[in-house]
Amino acid sequence: MNIGLKDSFDRAEQVNREQESKLQDELNLDVRVVDTMIQEIMWGSSANSIKFDARRDFGIDSKDADLYYKQALQAIKENRKWYKR
To answer: What is the Cα–Cα distance from 24 to 41, expressed in whole angstroms?
Structure first.
């Protein structure tokens, strides 16, 4: 019986780690989208291309892509730090 309990405990820990990882990814989505857009803007990509890539790569809709694009432009205006992938 002790082995079954340990297996259950190990499985619960694994599920916890997986859920924590998914939550962390979701929380970082905004930052990743904006950072990616900033990079693409700095590389000279067109606005339409950047928004299309964001919709495809991050699974966001057009409205969110427009919002993130505006945030990226604002970040550049404010000279915020951005990181190359």
So the answer is: 26
